[in-house]
Amino acid sequence: MSDLLLTHEPVVRGAVFITILLVMAVWEVVARRRPQRIGRARRWPGNLLIVVLDTLAVRLVFPLAAVGAALVAAEQGRGLFNLVVVPGWLAIVASVVVLDLAIYFQHRLFHAVPWLWRLHRMHHADLEFDVTTGLRFHPLEILLSMGVKLAVVTVLGAPAVAVVLFEVLLNATSMFNHGNVRLPARIDRWLRLLVVTPDMHRVHHSIVREETDSNFGFNLPWWDRLFATYRDQPAAGHLGMTIGIEAFREARDLRLDRMLIQPFMKARPHGKPPRS
Q1: What's this model's pTM, rounded to 2 decimal places?
Q2: Where do the Fatty acid hydroxylase domain residues begin and end (predicted)?
Q3: Residue 53's domain spans which residues?
Q4: Of 6, 15, 94, 179, which alpha carbon lies 20 to 30 A from 246's?
């Protein structure tokens, strides 16, 4: 099974990506959580094209990517799980959990360090919150994130199959928890014990900075509770809250060219009237 997964990794990842994207897109129509002032036609082209650029950037700079790093570490006997004998299933589970913890702390770092925030704020500058927001990351942030994953994978000696599983899960849950979808409150309450739900992560995209600096998890929800960054609900409620950041609220900022240069732009004064 693991050999099959590794052999067909691009096909598996592509199939999961397209399936989750389509399912969430339909779900957002059937059971929408919030009305959207800015429609898909204006936002989705930039959000989807940035995925293409991110993929090309990773393939160009890191041709082997994280799975390749895992295979190299195994071949050279580097990393914890290549030095310590443990059951294969335990190495896989532990690697997925530790990689998720690393992404949690990376996310906090991108909020805490000003120059990293300039890269990450493009993700938060989306003026609506839906499945494509979970794909909207600046290529430079993606490259830095891949560098972090390569380091963690190498130190852990993570099995290659664990890396594939983690990346598939992370991509899938990122699209899920950014979905503009409605879940019954009771189901959401229980589900967020196992995975970050849309209502849990939407708080993180609030314009209120105290709420933006909470609920950092993308996949597993435990880290926010463990490290005291968990916030149950937005103060204004999910229908009353404002999505985005104060500095970039013009509709033209949703264009791909503006998204790419945003980290190098000076934040505009608050209260400046928007232009389309």
Answers
A1: 0.91
A2: 93-229
A3: 2-264
A4: 179
